[in-house]
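Internal tracking record. Fields below are filled automatically when a chain is submitted to the structure queue. Please do not edit lines marked as system-generated. If the sequence contains nonstandard residues, flag them in the REMARKS field before resubmitting.
Queue: standard
Priority: normal
Entity type: single polypeptide chain
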Amino acid sequence: MNLIEKVKKTIRRYSLLEKGDRIVVGLSGGPDSMALLNVLWSLRDAYDLTLIPAHMNYGMRGKESEEDQGFCEQEAARYGLVLIYESVDLPALILDRGLSPQAAAREIRYDFFRRTAGAHDARRIALGHHADDQAETLLMRLLRGAGTRGLSGMPIRRAPGIIRPLLHVTREEILSYLASIRIPYREDSSNQKGIYLRNRIRRELIPLLVERYNPNLVEDLQRTAEILGEEEAFMQEEAEKRFSPMTIPGGVALDLSDLKGLSHAMVRRMVRMAMVQAGESSEITFRHVDSVLKLMEAEGSAARIDLPEGLKVRKSYERLEFSMENPKESPGDLYEIPVPGSKRIPELRIEVESRVLSLDETADSLLKSEAVLDLDKCSGPLGFRTRRPGDIFYPKGFGKKKKVKRFFIDEKIPYMERGRVPLLVNRENEILWIGGYRMDGRYAVDDKTRRALLIQIRRLNGKEHEETRRSPDIG
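SYSTEM-GENERATED OUTPUT FOLLOWS
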């Protein structure tokens, strides 16, 4: 079976494409992304596809990075396509956010792809990860002591709209395919650096295991990840059916009687879900979950343990309480949103969608999660952030300015939650909307409005938030 037939089989099996899809194609210039673009181009008539190649220039390799971008523009043009690209100062971002180079690149890349999809009304984002990438991911996580979720590797499809059509194809098959049709590609020199664990696994560990233990290692690991992924999804679905936390100030609580009789595996999963729902949990490990299980079994009616990121777990009679005693607030960073378009902001635990309305579409009454503003009054670009000292706004229907702090108090918003309320602001950093609560009356539509803007926010649940933060460990 040739590569295109193999990919078509994968697409059909997992329903990765629908007729008429608009697809953002991640294009780095490497062999995997070049093969992906060519395969999707060959399928464009069968599926009536619109392809939008997108390239992120990190500026990490100087002239080489600029050459990568130029190469991608040239190759996109060969298909009659226009490359969408963006350049960033990755070293500055690494210093600013305290992230590793790989984590910082991953964060801005996925954000760029989502913004590009929103701006071009694309339902899919296609990435070029292949079977060797999956094998490397599984081995890397195994060496770090991951559980079934981590060992599931990269899903072949993931919200919002991310697909990996080449995940069942090996690197060798990709290189052979490109050579057969004479498609050029670029080599990233950083892939040769031994300072990265993934590179060492690719260049040292996998060749050793293939040569001395299992010549079919890549295919077998890819299949193992797929099996674990299906079982993980089933277990998660079962846990969500049973998960019924109570809301408490600053967090959630589980009724211990609801956990009795459940397997250790199910209880462990529900404990982690409670941790995620209570607050930031990116530093939570199996060891921390296990300490909560021991707390449940401890004698006495009251006990407490402190976990990373300010998460507190208390056993109080027949309840297990999870709360953020000192909730970690966003430092007030501004997260710009596309207009129109959609964007996930995991730091604020929201997904935002914006849409320009005709005047006859403007609503008289809205959900709390929606706001309609006069677009010409808004002074973009727009973005979301959290509260800052001295914030004020003019609540619609109130007639005068009010401190955001006083508004939170009057609305009886729990102190633990105030640092997580998303605030929509304009270019001058003026508050247009306290998300989920009140608009600023100065930006409301009136009889002079020519263009209206609908902003909708959706809270990410624990699973979605963790999944967004858990972007694949892949370059």
